[in-house]
Amino acid sequence: MNTGQSGVRPVDVLIADDHPLYRSGVKTLLESAGACRVVGEARTGGEAVALAGRLRPHVVLMDVNLPDISGIEATRAIVGRCPDTAVVVVTMLEDRDTFLSAMRSGARGYLLKGADSKELRRAIDVVHAGSVLFDSHVADWVVEYLTKPPAAQDPFPELTARERAVLELVADGKGNAVIARELGLSVKTVRNYLSRIFAKLRLVDRTEAAVLARRAGLGR
Predict the structure, then answer these.
(1) Could you tell me the CATH number of the domain that includes residue 140?
(2) CA nearest 60: which of 27, 77, 23, 85?
(3) First vs last Cα of the chain: how many Å apart?
(4) Are 85 and 58 in contact (CB under 8 A)?
(5) Tens of pLDDT along 3-30?
(6) Do 19 and 122 share a domain, yes or no?
(7) Are residues 104 and 199 in the same domain?
(8) What is the DSSP letter of 66?
(9) pTM over 0.85
(10) Which structural domain, as residue segments, surrounds residue 39?
């Protein structure tokens, strides 16, 4: 068994991010401190789930926007299959919907990518010890979520606000070009949103998506 200089076993960490330079930088940062050992790197959500199941790391640092399945979906799968693995979402997305989706998926931490090395190492230590940690930028959302009156049940809590907006327009029968124009997006971005919606809701195509959305009350 490998141990650090103090004789304490390092925390095994899996990094899931599709940017190789970011993965390399985080790996160097963590291993230089001696308290962590990067046991694997994943480029996609699917790879993250597979590696977590095989390597059983103590902590996964998970980006949200990953190829194939999103970091949110990958987090849910890892938490379900590897209950002893804690997931910290590390993302550039500073929005409440993404934060709440991450927490509902089972993440135990949420950091923005601007976090410094001290914050990152502290987050790993905190979630490895069984607690939760949020970036200071999202602390107000936590308080609001815990104190505000319960809202009406969201039929698709796993979707972000933008994904719901796309789904609602699909329910209205709008094509990708129209959706892109109404939401100020590119057609390619709309296709990417649709792929994530299909994956999260386990749908085959936009017809099935439209039927499901209209049954849930979306659309006009």
Answers:
(1) 3.40.50.2300
(2) 85
(3) 61
(4) yes
(5) 444 456 789 999 999 999 999 999 998 8
(6) yes
(7) no
(8) -
(9) no
(10) 11-145
